[in-house]
Amino acid sequence: MRRIFGAAKPQAPAPTLDETTDKLNLRGDKVDDQIKKLDDQLVKYKEQIKKTRPGPAQDAIKRRALQILKQKKLYESQREQLYTQQFNMEQTRFTVDNVKDTVSTVQALKAATTDMKTAFKKNKELDLNYIDKMQDDMFDMMDMAREINDAMGRSYDVPEDVDESDLMAELDALEADMAVGEGAKGEVPSYLQEPDLGDLPSAPTKEAANSEAELGLPAMKT
């Protein structure tokens, strides 16, 4: 049967956006080259028209220039069509990329949602009731620690029957004593002052010692 009807040819794969865009760019470059060549020819014909006198020769140059100008308009029209096709291809590529990015984003969000659900199921630390109970326990322990600190900070030497007003009066008296002490700061304390011994007898001289010796009295040691 294959010999009679022939085997079906494998269908060629559809061109990709990148391949089509490259082809359009190549065609656009070729059209641009043709337009540039036609422009160069038009410049030459313009120079010839300026240098040629009016007459059949100048008319012939004008006809050739007009033909070149028509070709240029044709290539420019083709170039505009290529511009439009390239723009459409770019828009299509942008849309396709946007769709691919959207699919990737949705897939990533789906995977993240699955991971979050698994984490919430496996970890009791993410349970709101567990967190609330832990916070309550933390507050209770903080209160207990505060009560313990207050109990440990009590003073056992202060009697309970001490009146606060008496303590304030004693504090005022102490401040008054300190103020008096600061006023007399320049005076010498009494325990550092020299005692007043009054008039003491003077020490004996040599003449007094000689007279005592003449009288037969023992001499005083100096």
Short description:
This protein is mainly α and 222 residues long. Helix content is 72%, strand content 0%.
Radius of gyration: 61 Å
| Integer average pLDDT | 78
Number of H- or I-type helical stretches: 6
Uncertain segments are none
Distance between the termini: 165 Å
What level of helicity do the residues show?
over 70%
* H/E element order: HHHHHH
Described by strand count, sense and barrel closure, the largest sheet is: none
Structural class determined from secondary elements: mainly alpha
The number of strands is: 0
Strand content: under 5%
Overall, the morphology is elongated
Which features would summarize this protein structure in a list?
elongated; mainly alpha; 222 residues; 72% helix
